[in-house]
């Protein structure tokens, strides 16, 4: 198997090293693992692409490349420049430092990389490690992802339905904020919603007297509805959420169509 890995935390992020080990286990001795990752942290860029700016590319080693762009840029660079004649069989994005459950999904560059791969017709999975008091101080906070990552990906690939839709499936995986031995299992979930929590801004003054705003996240340990991603993670389970890039509100479509169409 030929696997491409990327992330949004940057080429030197510890989660990317964890992902490389997961990919090596999946690829096997006869497989290949290619890395195309951002030169700098790109957290929160979502599905952004550098449409109006050129991308500086650099090769750092055998099958290891970096670009000054977003995770989606990295996937495009890999597919059309780095390995155009030998496309990957699978794209893995992560392992993100922190969860990409619930509303975080909409901001995540990790998700953006997987989404771009799906739009390009390549199977893809985003992987993120939830942080909390039970794992943040471990020698390896990515322990749960490292221990359970390869098996989770294998199970997803084995269960992945054949499809011909224009917007292909990709998967959002979040590992719970616990040590590897405390992981209870795997749950297929929908995307949750943390009520009463959201991103916001916090003003600060620089020593020169200029006013700046920092973006602040909300409480990541607010529970979500039963059967959703964050609820499963906070209960100790790995969540797997199948997704598409189609943003149509299909549940509301018929009612709105009946009111608007003439």
From the structure above, extract its key features:
262 residues, two-stranded antiparallel sheet, 7 helices, Stationary-phase Survival Protein Sure Homolog, Chain: A, single chain, 9-stranded mixed beta sheet, alpha/beta
* Helix share bin: 25-40%
Reported CATH architecture: 3-Layer(aba) Sandwich
CATH superfamily: Survival protein SurE-like phosphatase/nucleotidase
Helix-strand category:
alpha/beta
Strand content: 15-25%
Task: State the order of secondary-structure elements, H for helix, E for strand.
Answer: EHEEEHEHHEHEEEEHEH
Characterize the biggest β-sheet: 9 strands, mixed
Supply the CATH class.
Alpha Beta
**Dominant shape:** globular
How would you concisely characterize the structure shown here?
The protein is α/β, with parallel strands linked by helices and 262 residues long. The protein contains seven helices and eleven strands.
Tell me about this structure.
By secondary structure, this protein is an alpha/beta fold. It has one domain: Survival protein SurE-like phosphatase/nucleotidase (Stationary-phase Survival Protein Sure Homolog, Chain: A), CATH 3.40.1210. 29% of the residues lie in helices and 24% in strands. The strands form two sheets. A nine-stranded mixed β-sheet has the order 3-4-2-1-5-6-7-11-8, sandwiched between helices. Helix 1 packs across helix 5 (143-159) and helix 2 packs parallel to helix 4. It is globular. The mean pLDDT is 96.
Write the layout of secondary structure elements.
Blueprint: E1 2-6, H1 14-27, E2 32-38, E3 57-61, E4 64-67, H2 71-82, E5 90-97, H3 104-107, H4 109-119, E6 124-129, H5 143-159, E7 170-175, E8 185-188, E9 200-205, E10 211-216, H6 229-234, E11 237-243, H7 250-260
Helix pairs in contact: 1-5, 2-4
């Amino acid at each position: 198997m030929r696997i491409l890995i990327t992330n949004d935390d940057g080429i030197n992020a510890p989660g990317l090293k964890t992902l490389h080990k997961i990919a090596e286990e999946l690829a096997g001795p006869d497989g290949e693992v290619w890395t195309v990752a951002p030169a700098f942290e790109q957290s929160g860029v979502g599905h952004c692409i550098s449409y109006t700016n050129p991308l500086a590319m650099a090769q750092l080693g055998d099958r290891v490349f970096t670009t000054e762009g977003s995770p989606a840029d990295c996937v495009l660079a890999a597919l059309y420049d780095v390995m155009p004649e030998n496309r990957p069989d699978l794209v893995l994005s992560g392992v993100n430092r922190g969860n990409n459950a619930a509303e975080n999904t909409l901001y995540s560059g990790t998700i953006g990389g997987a989404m771009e791969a799906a739009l390009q017709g390549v199977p893809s999975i985003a992987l993120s490690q939830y942080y909390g008091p039970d794992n943040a101080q471990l020698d390896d906070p990515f322990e749960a992802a490292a221990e359970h990552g390869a098996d989770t990906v294998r199970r997803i690939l084995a269960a992945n339905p054949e499809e011909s839709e224009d917007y292909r499936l990709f998967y959002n995986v979040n590992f719970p904020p616990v040590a590897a031995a405390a992981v209870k299992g795997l749950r297929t979930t929908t995307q949750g919603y943390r009520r009463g929590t959201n991103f916001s801004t916090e003003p600060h003054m620089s020593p020169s007297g200029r006013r700046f705003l920092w973006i602040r996240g909300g409480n990541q340990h607010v529970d979500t509805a039963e059967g959703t991603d964050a609820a499963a993670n906070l209960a100790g389970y790995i969540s797997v959420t199948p997704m598409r890039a189609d943003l149509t509100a299909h549940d509301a479509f018929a009612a709105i169509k009946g009111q608007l169409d003439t």
